[in-house]
Automatic annotation (TrEMBL):
Protein name: WD repeat protein
Keyword Cytoplasm belongs to the record: no
Positions with biased composition (Low complexity): 315-339
Record's compositionally biased regions (Pro residues): 304-314
Region annotation Disordered: where it falls in the sequence: 301-340
Record keywords, A-Z: Repeat, WD repeat
GO CC annotation: Cul4-RING E3 ubiquitin ligase complex
Top-level taxon in the UniProt lineage: Eukaryota
Species this chain originates from: Rhodotorula toruloides (Yeast)
Coiled coil: none
Length: 400
């Protein structure tokens, strides 16, 4: 699939599915563009055939490449590296920006972000910037004059650069930051709020140390006591947060032992490799060798490559493919077997069944949240598909 609103010399770096409409996909690009696409046709789309450019629209233009694109409920946040480093916080349904943050001095960078139902966090060179969403969409009479709080992660040496953030809704106010010096730092953003951009006071924190820079931290939503951590030396492990060791003594450099090690991830220097989890079952991660690997979050074992899915019936295929530039038909190869042209920078699991996106009954059930497993969003009976940013396009794979 190649979004029609983007030039072919642009590169899609990030993917994010909408929480309210599972058929809505946002992409962030190397040129600083954020675009939104509707993967499911509207009832009157046939009137525009074959001109379906309206399915993709550009929403925001930032001054440099997009480094993060996250959504939670009706909110989204995106950052660009800089200069100047900039972040946009907006609503997902109306594409209305609540705030735009530009950092100074110009040499400052924004590497990542995270968003929950009540908090936005931005990862910079030496700190995490925090602001409650309530401070952004409140009225001007009640809005604080300086809603930005700062949590310092390091000094001028670069060891505190924040490459990854996660703010789980079930975390009770916890923020997790993965930094260059090989630490996963967890802290409660509600305690000792500084505000006004002033560096926050020392707060109680939890630290997990690994032997290389941390590239990913992700709390498993179905198991909020589990933290997935990836590092530059191919490190990939799952930690039980109930057994973390607080740094009570400065000389205590021992680190918490992981509950599961996943061996086989390939990375030596990249900070931008795609990773996503499917419930508390599977993690998909891209390697520096341009391949995607799946691991079980329950056993830590690499999953065997699944067989290629059977081709769809010719009638469904003809309804599904509208043109060569907008085809969403999944590849016949397993994502575990297919090397990409470059290391994928973003992966996203979804319950969408790409073969049925031209089925009006399926679309109605999809948007009504009926048609998948209980509590699902109208997917392939609980079986995920994996969407991969690949150059100027997005590929989709069935994951049996």
């Amino acid at each position: 699939m190649y979004p029609d609103c983007l030039p072919l010399d642009d590169t899609i770096l990030l993917l994010a599915f909408d929480d309210f409409d599972p058929a809505r996909l946002r992409v962030g690009t190397s040129n600083g563009t954020i675009a939104t696409g509707n993967l499911a046709p509207s009832a009157d789309e046939s009137a525009y055939f074959p001109n379906d450019e309206e399915r993709w629209r550009t929403g925001w233009f930032l001054p440099n490449k997009i480094t993060s694109l996250k959504s939670s409920g009706k909110w989204m946040v995106a950052t660009c590296l800089g200069p100047p480093a900039q972040a946009v916080i907006a609503t997902t349904q109306d594409s209305i920006s609540l705030a735009s943050v530009t950092l100074s001095p110009r040499k400052t960078s924004l590497w990542t972000s995270a968003i929950s139902s009540d908090l936005v966090a931005l990862g910079g060179d030496r700190s995490v910037l925090l602001t409650p969403l309530s401070a952004l969409h409140s009225s001007s009479s009640t809005r604080p004059s300086s809603p930005i709080d700062t949590y310092t992660t390091g000094g001028r040496g670069g060891g505190g650069t924040v490459f990854s953030l996660d703010v789980p809704d079930q975390g009770g106010g916890m923020v997790w930051a993965g930094v260059r010096r090989g630490e996963c730092i967890g802290f409660d953003w509600r305690s000792a709020r500084g505000g006004g951009g002033i560096e926050a006071r020392t707060r109680e924190q939890t630290t997990i140390r690994i032997a290389s820079p941390v590239t990913h931290v992700k709390v498993v939503r179905e198991q909020p006591n589990q933290l997935l951590v990836a590092g530059m030396d191919g490190f990939l492990a799952l930690y039980d947060l109930r057994f973390t060791r607080p740094p009570t003594l400065a000389r205590d450099r021992r680190s918490t032992a992981p509950m599961l090690h996943m061996k086989g991830h390939v990375n030596t220097f990249s900070t931008q490799l795609g990773l996503d989890t499917w419930k508390d079952e599977v993690v998909a991660i891209a390697g520096q060798d341009s391949r995607i690997r799946l691991f079980s979050l329950r056993t830590g074992l690499a999953l065997s490559p699944p067989p290629p899915p059977p081709p769809p019936p010719s009638s469904s295929s003809s309804r599904f493919v509208t043109s060569s530039s907008t085809s969403l038909a999944p590849s016949s190869d397993s994502p575990l077997l297919k090397p990409f042209s470059s290391p994928p920078t973003s992966l996203a699991f979804s319950t969408l069944d790409p073969f049925r996106l031209r089925d009006e009954g399926y679309i109605e059930a999809l948007r009504a949240g009926d048609g998948g497993e209980k509590g699902g969003r109208g997917g392939r009976w609980g079986v995920p598909s994996l969407w991969v940013a690949d150059g100027a396009g997005v590929e989709c794979f069935a994951v049996p």
